[in-house]
Amino acid sequence: MKHSDPKKLLMAKNASQDHFRTPRIASPFQPRIEALMRTEEWYDWAGYKAPLSLWDEELEYFAIRSQAALFDISPMVKYRIEGPDAEAFLNRVTLRDVRKLKPGRVHYTAWCNDEGHVLDDGTLFRLRSDRFRLCSQERHLPWLLDSGIGFDVSIIEETKSIAALALQGPASFAVLRDAGFKNVDALKVFDLAEFEHDGENVTISRTGFTGDLGYELFVDQELALGLWDRLWQAGEQRGLRAIGYAALNRARLEAGLIVANSDFITAEHAIRADRVRMPDEIGLGFMIDMEKPHFNGRRAIQQARVKGGLQHILVGLEVEGNIPAEHAIVYHQGKREVGLVSAAIWSPMAKRNIALASLERPYGDTITGDLWVEIYAMRELRYQKLMKRAKVVPRPFIKLDRRTANPPADF
């Protein structure tokens, strides 16, 4: 009897399983992140291998709030939109009036389908009069291309070719200045400008997802490691630390910022008809400019406002106690189920138990009293049901003057 070669059998088995494997994409900054990784906590961000935490989630959060933190945002979906009709095209598909967005500025916006349901939210950078960069959580290239029919516009996804970093925290300006980015102090909130780096340019905007003083940097992927090293060296004396998403998520919640497919379900991902949301139902009604020319979803949004078609509202909650109420059910008078908490933490900065929740109107809108959340707390290997009072409070939960200070503080 002839025995099979064990090595060949193993190779054949591995080959037969290749179709089950989905390798994650490596960020241009992956070598630096891998070198700093201690927790081995990774997650999938748009197909990329991204750090949930690198060394300690709680200390990473405090790096944002007390010094400076570096977070890789390269997996964020990025589109370059340019051409003679770029402004008109973007004005047609997004909620805000793009004509008011000047070159060298950024605004937070969102876009809807024809039924007025939110497809995604993101940031729009006006790099030049006829060139924009649209950043988002989800991929929308087919929809953008279809929407661009009839416009003289070029739409290219540049997620892989453009590396990006978020530099956030009170010392973020000082790090950039010490790294040699001359006149970066001239950037006001939502400003952007180009700076020299390795003989090429890096785009720096005074933007971020933490509610703190912060910047985002965009550079060609070939220059990514050089940019990281430049910032890392400059930040050594100012306590610069690399962080993962878990710490960033704490900071964004304190700032009252929402995440697509976490705090609301985008129209393309919703399976059930009652899960979609209009901008007014997730706190984005302030973006809608009814004075500008027609845009996607305009008629549906207007009808919902006039005819009372808005069924939900996203609110900030303060919950009694110190146990986070993440994914807790919200009740009125402790009996009627009226909504669900999508994100919650004990806030070290606000010293409050805070949460974001989607509620069924009129609860959270005209009825804001006698709300309760149902929390299941694990105590000594048993879940204990806790009913805690909650009250609707304004967002953001914290407001830091240094975020908008001009010039930025030297920390």
TrEMBL record:
A biological process (GO) of this protein is:
methylation
- Gene3D superfamilies in the cross-refs: Probable tRNA modification gtpase trme, domain 1 (3.30.1360.120)
A molecular function (GO) held by this record is:
methyltransferase activity
Question: Which SUPFAM superfamilies does the annotation name?
Answer: Aminomethyltransferase beta-barrel domain (SSF101790), Folate-binding domain (SSF103025)
Stretches assigned to the GCVT N-terminal domain: 58-292
Keywords annotated in UniProt: Methyltransferase, Transferase
> What are the Aminomethyltransferase C-terminal domain coordinates in residue numbering?
314-399
CC annotations in GO: cytosol
Record-annotated residues binding substrate?
Answer: E216
Q: Does the keyword rRNA processing apply?
A: no
Full protein name: Aminomethyltransferase
